[in-house]
Design a protein that fits this description.
- The chain is an alpha+beta fold.
- The chain is built from 7 helices and 14 strands.
- The strands form 4 sheets. It has a 4-stranded antiparallel beta sheet with strand order 1-2-3-4, covered by helices on one side. Strands 5-6-7-8 form a 4-stranded antiparallel beta sheet.
- The two termini are 51 Å apart.
- About 2% of the residues have low confidence.
Length: 282
């Protein structure tokens, strides 16, 4: 297959001025001159992606700044510019054919990623089943424009759930599944009253904050900071009732480490020895 000659082509601020053979993977290399005067070597896909030697930052790239006012993209009509994103891309206020307005960046409009305010992707879920929920009828829309459905649970109760929560299986019952026998953390020893309120007892939220603050919001397993953190009960909530609100019985763990711990040791009979082994094994 003959090699395509790109010499003389201009992409953004780069102009191809020569051929430098191939790299170790067999991809053709091209010598490019930037408008600032620097000369560098790239493979062709990098020339199209970078469009400069690095002297032109995304916020100052002139080819990204275009006027889309009055243009139509599927069901969206662009009304006016609405500022810029953190990377310097333009944001536009658009009117959907359904009457709603939303803000979309220029790249999403041009690529076709955004073709409506979200109404196009709303499916009719009437009479469809999602785990323990049977969809009865539409009852309105949420703040983000997602359809809200009235659903009947297998236990007999009704609840309102958004399309996203149903389709993603984030909501699978009216709430009874969380304390029912099918739940992985079901405890036969608890009464119905304890089962419904065991995570809402007074002092639990304060206990979580105290544990996280004591550990300086740092995962005690991997040392992660600035991530989603959990307060883990060393002697588990399930059996050690007297230590449920004892700060010394808590340890800060990131979501990944916390899930990995319970995947290895389960959820009910956790203790200090398991936690020590887990830390040493990481």
């Amino acid at each position: 297959m003959n090699k395509i000659n790109h010499i003389g082509e201009k992409i953004g601020a780069l102009t191809v001025i020569g051929d430098k053979g191939k790299d170790k993977h067999g991809k053709p290399l091209w010598i490019c001159s930037c408008s600032c005067g620097s000369v560098k070597t790239y493979i062709w896909c990098n020339v199209k992606d970078q469009r400069s030697c690095g002297c032109i930052r995304p916020r100052s790239r002139k080819w990204l700044q275009v006027d889309l006012t009055g243009k139509r993209y599927s069901k969206l009509l662009v009304l006016r510019e609405w500022g810029k994103t953190k990377t310097g891309a333009q944001k536009w206020l658009c009117q959907c054919d359904c009457g709603k307005q939303n803000i979309v960046d220029a790249r999403s409009l041009k690529r076709g990623d955004s073709n409506s305010c979200g109404c196009v992707n709303q499916k009719d879920l009437t009479n469809k089943r999602f785990s323990n929920l049977l969809v009865i009828k539409e009852v309105g829309r949420s703040k983000n424009g997602c359809i809200v459905w009235l659903c009947k649970c297998d236990c007999g109760k009704t609840t309102e759930v958004s399309s996203n929560s149903l389709l993603r299986l984030n909501t699978r019952s009216c709430g009874c599944l969380a304390c029912g026998e099918k739940h992985y953390n079901y405890n036969k020893q608890l009464t119905d009253k304890e089962r419904k309120t065991r995570r809402n007892i007074n002092g639990l939220a304060k206990w979580v904050l105290n544990v996280l603050g004591r550990d300086r919001y740092t995962c005690q397993v991997c040392g992660g900071k600035g991530v989603c953190l959990h307060a883990h009960h060393i002697d588990s909530w399930h059996w050690c009732k007297e230590k449920r609100l004892d700060v010394d019985n808590g340890a800060t763990m990131c979501v990944k480490c916390h899930r990995r711990f319970h995947k290895e040791y389960g959820f009910k009979l956790n203790n200090k020895e398991q936690f020590s082994k887990f830390i040493k094994g990481v």
